From TrEMBL:
Translation initiation factor 3 N-terminal domain ranges (all copies): 74-139
Record-linked Gene3D superfamilies: Translation initiation factor 3 (IF-3), C-terminal domain (3.30.110.10), Translation initiation factor 3 (IF-3), N-terminal domain (3.10.20.80)
Protein name per UniProt: Translation initiation factor IF-3
Organism: Cuscuta australis
Record's subcellular location: Plastid, Chloroplast
Alphabetical UniProt keywords: Chloroplast, Initiation factor, Plastid, Protein biosynthesis, Transit peptide
Length: 247
């Protein structure tokens, strides 16, 4: 076998000078597997061998699952590089961009693969992805805060004190959650005679809600009398910002 080994010559098939083969090779993270090599001693040559290589990003995870790190999609040998300080370096070779990222111990991320040449940036990709997710969640919270559901509360013109208090607390909770509240007093049959009392009840309800809400609409003419209250946006915004200040 020693004679066989000395008789064989190998040419390197994985090198930095061939960026089209693998997008990024790190000397400590390249794994080569030889599967079932079969040697013919009579001819002193390798008759069959299979070689496979897998590329890992700098944190040890496979980059195949993340298109932003898969530099094999870039066919051009030139890229437009942005460095880790977000400065435009300009057009450089792909191998130089990879080397700069390696020297900085950061990731080389594809921003615009369809551009000519493709745009890449040196960055901490995990941190970048975390910041994007955080911005997305913040935007979802803002959208949820701007979206108002309409909650309805019904009561009679002669509602007792306890039931009135229950509905008032419910209205205040809905308003704090950012929802509109429609308070309805339905006059049936001869109850229409007590219209003035129903109007007074609705006006008092608005007063008791206080600065949590402003009046958006009302109807005191029909039998189904109502007021529509909307949250006070200034107070609602302060309530949402207060937990952040405590953090």
């Amino acid at each position: 076998m020693a004679g066989l080994a000395s008789a064989l010559t190998f040419k390197p098939i994985l090198s930095r000078s061939n960026p089209n083969f693998l997008p990024y090779l790190h000397p400590t993270r390249l794994t080569i597997y030889l599967h079932s090599p079969t040697f013919s001693l009579s001819t002193s040559s390798v008759t069959s061998a299979s070689i496979s290589a897998q590329h890992f990003d700098r944190r040890g995870g496979s980059s195949d699952d993340d298109e932003a790190l898969d530099l094999s999609v870039i066919r051009s040998n030139k890229v437009r590089l942005i460095d880790q300080e977000q400065n435009m370096v300009g057009i450089v070779s792909k191998s130089e961009a990879l080397q700069r990222a390696e020297d900085s111990e950061l990731d080389l991320v594809i921003l615009s693969p369809e551009a000519d040449p493709p745009v890449v940036r040196i960055m901490d990709y995990n941190k970048y992805r975390y910041e994007l997710q955080k911005k997305r969640k913040d935007q979802q919270k803002k959208n949820a805060a701007n979206r108002m559901d309409l909650k309805e509360l019904k009561m009679g013109y002669n509602i007792d004190v306890h039931d009135y208090s229950v509905r008032l607390k419910a209205a205040q909770k809905f308003l704090k959650d950012g929802d509109k509240v429609k308070v309805i007093v339905n006059l049936k049959g001869r109850e229409n005679e007590f219209r003035a009392k129903a109007v007074e009840l609705l006006k008092q309800f608005q007063i008791d809600v206080g600065e949590l809400a402003t009046l958006e609409g009302k109807n005191f003419k029909d039998r189904n009398m109502f007021i529509v209250l909307v949250p006070n946006k200034i107070l609602l915004q302060k309530a949402q910002e207060q937990p952040k200040e405590n953090d």
